[in-house]
Amino acid sequence: xxxxxxxxxxxxxxxxxxxxxxxxxxxxxxxxxxxxxxxxxxxxxxxxxxxxxxxxxxxxxxxxxxxxxxxxxxxxxxxxxxxxxxxxxxxxxxxxxxxxxxxxxxxxxxxxxxxxxxxxxxxxxxxxxxxxxxxxxxxxxxxxxxxxxxxxxxxxxxxxxxxxxxxxxxxxxxxxxxxxxxxxxxxxxxxxxxxxxxxxxxxxxxxxxxxxxxxxxxxxxxxxxxxxxxxxxxxxxxxxxxxxxxxxxxxxxxxxxxxxxxxxxxxxxxxxxxxxxxxxxxxxxxxxxxxxxxxxxxxxxxxxxxxxxxxxxxxxxxxxxxxxxxxxxxxxxxxxxxxxxxxxxxxxxxxxxxxxxxxxxxxxxxxxxxxxxxxxxxxxxxxxxxxxxxxxxxxxxxxxxxxxxxxxxxxxxxxxxxxxxxxxxxxxxxxxxxxxxxxxxxxxxxxxxxxxxxxxxxxxxxxxxxxxxxxxxxxxxxxxxxxxxxxxxxxxxxxxxxxxxxxxxxxx
Amino acid sequence: xxxxxxxxxxxxxxxxxxxxxxxxxxxxxxxxxxxxxxxxxxxxxxxxxxxxxxxxxxxxxxxxxxxxxxxxxxxxxxxxxxxxxxxxxxxxxxxxxxxxxxxxxxxxxxxxxxxxxxxxxxxxxxxxxxxxxxxxxxxxxxxxxxxxxxxxxxxxxxxxxxxxxxxxxxxxxxxxxxxxxxxxxxxxxxxxxxxxxxxxxxxxxxxxxxxxxxxxxxxxxxxxxxxxxxxxxxxxxxxxxxxxxxxxxxxxxxxxxxxxxxxxxxxxxxxxxxxxxxxxxxxxxxxxxxxxxxxx
Lengths: 508, 296
Prior knowledge:
heterodimer
């Protein structure tokens, strides 16, 4: 009995899931995202197949994880590639259709046209606008929500039986709604279009652009013609002047060409690349050196209180990094920072950590070593434990000291298994945008580059600045640099997999 | 170890202790300093490690109370630190939960079952777990910006969107859990099947209870990375009340408005609970760090 109930429950549940899925797909389709709707439908169909067909049994287990990986990891990566072939940026943000729509909605004031006094009246939660022209004719709008985008609505002569309007709102309320009113145009019964022209006034306007059959737009005021240029992503005048807003178009490889051949980009790009490699390499070197020395000490039986020491050493790893980094940012502050106060007291120097490139780089490495050595210590300890102790006994008989032990036994034996982890750490620090963003923000900047680029910027933080801090918000270029970085990480990752595999085979 | 000890041995031990303690002092210096700064009056005052006068103004402000200074000036708290902490914990908990739920069965299939494309899928998984989400930042921003146009609670400036974005860490989880499954002998499931359990029952009632420890580890690691995540949160969240701790606390240290003392109190207040959780879970974390990475 309970089995049957369970089965019916399962079927009901699947039916609900499928129906909900179809509803979502329909919604996406209605929203105009055809490709996305298709993709969702494919996932839904695949899911339905997997959970009903006995042949796809193991995929029932795989499905949640695989779909999540596909949607949340692979899709963003592919999308990044796709963006890198476009000119997507704050100037070319809209789709072609939306950009065209924008131009077609522009209006201009008709010279010598009527002007209309207007008042705003509450109608429940909505508002109605009352317009009165110079001859005293009155027009009233339907109730408006006043928070949607640009719209055109009809305003008509009120009929005799209509309920009277509420008292007009006072000026203070009116001023608050002006930005919304600016977006609303009214079409009067005679076809005249009116838009907001002053605090208490609407004026006769007409559409600035008229669409032509060939896709170009004619300016009704000065009769100039705007032609959409599908190469640059702008509507252009006959003299080639680009009108804002532009739209997003495919630009092929030109973003990549910019990185590698346009001197104003390639020069900072390569400088930053070199520093990125140095930064990641030195970070791995320093953290591993400190970590492995501590690990050796922590595995030394003669030392008492190791558990306590180990906990203390682990603390930098347990404090959230964004807090430690900011603590260091304050401590390194040139004028009020405690580190400079101590240095002043002890040796009388006052280094400017944030404005000298070399010092800023040193500071980053100091902080990152502090942040990263506990991890290296922990993984080295595991590997040192695995070294058979008779090796050290034999060495002791041969009379070797601790240094010889370390360099001839410990290090050679752990370097191989630890190598994949070192490469992973290299890859992580190669992309350590948090450290840079919170500590230096990439500054001090290069003085001789056209694009904002910092001496302490890593390639990722450089990308981050291009996309999210620079006013141009050049997403296309940022995506192109990201793609190059993806390739670099892939190479590192492949090397890593190769090494891991070799290690695993030797262990057998 | 049966090693004959020479005379220098004792001195080496002493030297090691001295060096270790000196090193601990060095790495603890920032924390001691920040504590002392948090009880110093004012935001610019400098002083010794042990403050001469103790003032709780920064702490009061960090807890969200206003504070009346000695000169009668009323100070209002600048930032909702506790709210940020709550936002962080909420986002990290939910994203860690989603991550574990989605990855467990998948990891089981990779460890135990045979299916088409298994090897290439595993290699692909290994490859993409190396990709940090910062590299896809532009795409993530665009995707959530577009989604937000239709579903506001999943768009930019929403915690729902951020939680979904964090689900991208799932490849690592699958890999870690899979490694643990391989340490469990297959005979256990076979025994369950002999007793009449279906494949799913063997997984659900026999194997799942056995892997709770690694699920805890993965949950914890995912929680930590959720709390610590900065780049994605910094592009998705903008308004003050919405921020997570990682993007919020930096607002204390803008050069134009430098609130060093207030920052110190806020940093301890928000960082301490997280640190305590991490320290308590230290053992698990270490096992997770080594388990996930070494088994390839």
